[in-house]
Amino acid sequence: MPREIDEAWIDEAIDRYRRLDVLRGEFEKAVAGHVVSVHSPDDSIEVLVTAAGEITDVRIRGSLQHRSAAELAREVQAVVTTATEAARWARQKLHDEVFGAFRSLGER
């Protein structure tokens, strides 16, 4: 017995795939272009990071003359960890904005 093909469902699936492909492109562009600024706990280091996780700039404020290498290393580690978390947060927010209204095929 031949299976019945739901042409409307197939057409909708193709349209949804195309729309999803467009949304994915918008998301990738937004993730690459969205920059978050984070600071070390003592505010001496600022890191700019994209939602994709790429560190685009590191800025050191003030003098480093009175700091030990260990102190500076701790501040750098802390701000890089914060930058990673900020990128993840920004990526999730952008994902929710871009794909939030996108419903699954089962929700039609």
UniProtKB/TrEMBL annotation:
Source organism: Actinoplanes friuliensis DSM 7358
Protein name: YbaB/EbfC DNA-binding family protein
GO MF annotation: an example: DNA binding
UniProt-listed InterPro entries: YbaB-like_sf, YbaB/EbfC
